[in-house]
Design the sequence.
């Protein structure tokens, strides 16, 4: 019964969000990026290349792996052996967690080389959006915010 209640509440919250009246979203913005003036520059894509974006801001895998390894290691033996096994388990768990996190935190990206209307050429790397794929020759907008974040849209 409790599970059914949670399910029904989840459906209700999802339904309350409703569709965007402007159509499906092709770009995501954070709260910090809204309600501010952004500069727009126009250009044409002259080259593009697939890249992989590695996130190095998340240490959850290392911490979780270390904790799990330490707990598992401490259950081995007793006395000094237990302490040594806990330290070894924490180190090995941290290494395994680090590798798992590295695999999880990779994102597909695209490096766009764009010739601006004034003749300048810029290169911008951003995450791939499957709803807005670019091709050579596409006319695009380069949007820059006051903090230096840049994104390219069609």
Sequence:
């Amino acid at each position: 019964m409790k599970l059914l209640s949670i399910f029904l509440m989840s459906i209700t919250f999802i339904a309350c969000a409703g569709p965007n009246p402007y159509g499906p979203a092709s770009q995501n913005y954070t709260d910090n990026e809204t309600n501010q003036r952004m500069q727009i520059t126009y250009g044409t894509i002259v080259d593009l290349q697939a890249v992989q974006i590695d996130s190095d801001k998340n240490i959850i895998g290392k911490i979780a792996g270390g904790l799990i390894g330490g707990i598992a290691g401490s259950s081995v033996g007793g006395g000094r052996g237990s302490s040594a096994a806990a330290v070894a388990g924490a180190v090995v768990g941290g290494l395994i967690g680090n590798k798992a996190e590295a695999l999880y935190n990779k994102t597909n990206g695209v490096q766009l080389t764009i010739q601006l209307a004034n003749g300048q050429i810029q290169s911008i790397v951003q995450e791939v959006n499957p709803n807005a794929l670019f091709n050579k020759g596409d006319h695009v907008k380069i949007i820059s915010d006051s903090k230096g974040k840049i994104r390219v849209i069609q």
In short: The chain has a mean pLDDT of 75. The radius of gyration is 24 Å. The chain has three helices and five strands. The domain at 21-54+107-153 is CATH 2.40.50.100 (OB fold (Dihydrolipoamide Acetyltransferase, E2P)).
